[in-house]
Amino acid sequence: MSLKQIVSNCLHGLRVAFVALTVFQFSLGGPLAGSLQAQENTHTRTPIKHVIVLIGENRTFDHIFATYVPKSDDSVSNLLSKGIINADGTPGKHFSKAAQFQAVAPFKTKFFISLDKDEKAPYQTLPSPSLNFAPTATIFPPGTPLNFLEAIEPSLEAADENLLTTGAASQFPQTFVQPDPDTRVQNFNALPNGPFPLKGKNLPYDSYTGDTTHRLFEMWQQSDCNIKNATRHNPSGCLSDLYPFVITNYTNQIDGIFNNPPAFDDNGGGNSMAFYNVQAGDAPVLKSLADEFSMSDNFHQSFMGGTGAKSHNSALAHRQSRSAAGHRRRLHCGSSFRRQLHRVRRPDAAWHCANPRLPSDSPVPSRFQVPTGTLLHDQQRLARLPPGRHR
């Protein structure tokens, strides 16, 4: 058994352990519910009592809401509204705007975060989606009694409890190393160069599909960011046109450490370009939430990298108070946070981080003052930073 298969089995064990913990938590449901009800009358500045953040791990906005149309008169920025795809998921008139590229010779020999136009060329056919760790077995086998499933996951409708026992990619021998294309996807080996619907005759909606690998250094390369590409509508300057290329090439060496026998790791192939179609009935719960509540189509993540850092950022997105009410709130001035301040929004806060011996409520020199939320171009930013603190 390869190390990757051992890891997969360990993950399966962790899932079972998590289920057991969930059952225990439900046994505390009464006291916890009572505590929450007691907090309902807590005074808040606005009518909003609770904010619930849903994090769709390893998924982008368009992966779920590519074809979403608001029920109200609001607008939405997605693949459909941009004309990149049609409501049925087929390529739209602006399909080429989402084209993906691959590097061309002579290839760069050092790390890069962007490629010029003459250093890349569009794919003729998108790299095939792959299975990338799709489970080959479910946590609960088919035929598990309904009353047991309801105890495990009481939040599901009774008609949906059976989903806990279906969807495994059981027809495949493994989902860890190449080649492992997801042959269930319609036209998996002849996809046009752009977003494709996650559907197929042998791919029912409840199916587990391949992960979309995302890591810090690779994500910078995939996003293909350069300030010279920045526009009013795309201030980041990121073209996001190297996603399949980077993920299918950066591990193109035989892995003899984690694989026995040695093999090429699977890291997702063209999975990053897949999308569900809510107009075809996909993601019904998320669609109903979008229909009823507010949604954001213009925030994707706070910085590059894996899910963990962004989850922490959401959970800890507050600044600790120094002491009594009325005092200036203390800034977290860790090196990574300081770089974020320098590069994006708050040179005035960066001044305090760069001068920790000064009282946090001391005046900031006028040339470092800038309204919170102001976006600065590189040269503007550098002009406002303390000497020697440009990086």
Q: Structural class, please?
A: mainly alpha
Number of helices: 11
State the strand order across the main sheet.
1-2
The N- to C-terminal Cα distance equals 47 Å
Order of helices and strands: HHHEEHEHHEHHHHH
Q: Which parts are unreliable, with pLDDT below 50 for 5 consecutive residues or more? A: 318-358, 366-391
Percentage of β-strand residues: under 5%
Query: What is the tally of beta strands?
Result: 4
Outline the biggest β-sheet. 2 strands, antiparallel
Overall pLDDT score: 77
- Classify the helix fraction into a percent range: 25-40%
What is the molecular shape? globular
User: What's the Cα radius of gyration?
Assistant: 24 Å
What would the keywords be for this entry?
11 helices; two-stranded antiparallel sheet; two-stranded parallel sheet; globular; mainly alpha; 391 residues
Overview of this structure, please?
Residues 318-358 and 366-391 have low confidence and may be disordered. The protein is an all-alpha fold and 391 residues long. Among the domains are: 57-134 and 169-306, no CATH class; 328-384, no CATH class. Strands 1-2 form a two-stranded antiparallel ribbon. A two-stranded parallel ribbon has the order 3-4. The longest helix has 25 residues, at 3-27. Helices cover 27% and strands 3% of the residues.
Q: What is the compact description of this entry?
A:
The protein has 391 residues and is mainly alpha-helical. It is 27% helix and 3% strand. Among the domains are: 57-134 and 169-306, no CATH class; 328-384, no CATH class.
